């Protein structure tokens, strides 16, 4: 199963293949919150990790797709052995990159050795020396010896999106640790609506930026705009007319349908659409 790592009540996906599987196969969008290594000084495009809504994580666990995991020793002060492992790993990376760069330099020098020899002869001729026999192999070795050691600051930096060392203790958690809790009335209806719409084949994301609980898409949000903005409520909830009008007008402004979702008297999920007609919401 795909691991979801829980920190402070939120579930995260750190592995790029897991992210791809959840997105393509299971229609789970989440929210990318990490900085892109190639473009760190912007926030228009984000990278891993992916943060999941409580509803998303709970559904994945209930469907047997994922499991919630807590790494108990991840936030503990590293031991001396762990620090030594990290130092050894960094030193190995430096040596590997240095060797690879040196091999590349030697290959380039070997390809240009005839040009180097011709240049040396031309330089000697300009000084009036013409009877010098230059050995390619000796000259090549001299050029290789001139290759400087590469400073660590000039090498590539590895930015792992997963813990690169073995974590000893992993604890399987229940969905009760997720925040906000789904045990409340509000949490129950939100999860029920998310589960219902997901099983009907829709893509869902958080609708907080549009004053709703979920945005509902006919296809992947990369290719489609949201069709519906869903607000979860209760039959007993009393709305002020101004709030209903505001919700309806906002949906029109962003070209979406405003939907109220709730449990009806039989306990089934029911959806009510707010539509404009002759400047009146009904």
TrEMBL record:
EC identifiers of the protein: 4.6.1.16
InterPro entries reported for this sequence: tRNA_endonuc-like_dom_sf, tRNA_intron_Endo_cat-like_sf, tRNA_intron_Endonuc_cat-like, tRNA_splic, TSEN34, TSEN34_N
Protein name: tRNA-splicing endonuclease subunit Sen34
GO process annotations (BP): tRNA-type intron splice site recognition and cleavage
Keywords of this entry: Lyase, tRNA processing
SUPFAM superfamilies named in the record: tRNA-intron endonuclease catalytic domain-like
Lineage: Eukaryota, Metazoa, Ecdysozoa, Arthropoda, Hexapoda
Domain TSEN34 N-terminal: 2-70
């Amino acid at each position: 199963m795909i691991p979801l790592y829980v920190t402070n009540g939120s579930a995260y996906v750190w592995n790029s293949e897991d992210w791809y599987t959840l997105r393509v196969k299971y229609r789970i969008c989440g929210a990318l919150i990490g900085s892109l290594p190639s473009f760190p000084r912007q926030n228009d495009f984000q990278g891993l990790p992916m943060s999941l809504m409580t509803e998303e994580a709970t559904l994945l666990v209930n469907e047997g797709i994922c499991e919630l995991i807590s790494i108990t020793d991840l936030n503990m002060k590293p031991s001396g052995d762990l620090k030594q492992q990290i130092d050894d790993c960094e030193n190995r990376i430096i040596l590997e990159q240095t060797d690879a760069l040196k091999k590349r330099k030697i290959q380039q020098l070997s390809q240009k050795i005839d040009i180097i020899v011709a240049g040396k002869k031309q330089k000697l001729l300009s000084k009036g020396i013409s009877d010098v026999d230059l050995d390619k192999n000796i000259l090549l070795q001299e050029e290789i010896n001139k290759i400087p050691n590469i400073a660590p600051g000039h090498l590539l930096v590895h930015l792992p999106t997963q813990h690169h060392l073995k974590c000893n203790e992993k604890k399987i958690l229940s969905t009760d640790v997720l925040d906000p809790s789904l045990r409340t009335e509000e949490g129950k209806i939100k999860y029920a609506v998310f589960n219902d719409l997901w099983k009907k084949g829709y893509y869902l994301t958080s609708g907080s930026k549009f004053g709703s609980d979920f945005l509902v898409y006919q296809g992947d949000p990369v290719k489609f705009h949201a069709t519906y903005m869903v607000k979860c409520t209760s039959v007993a909830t009393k709305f002020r007319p101004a709030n209903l009008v505001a919700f309806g007008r906002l949906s029109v402004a962003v070209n979406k349908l405003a939907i109220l979702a709730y449990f009806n008297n039989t306990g089934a999920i029911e959806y009510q659409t707010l539509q404009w007609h002759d400047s009146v919401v009904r």
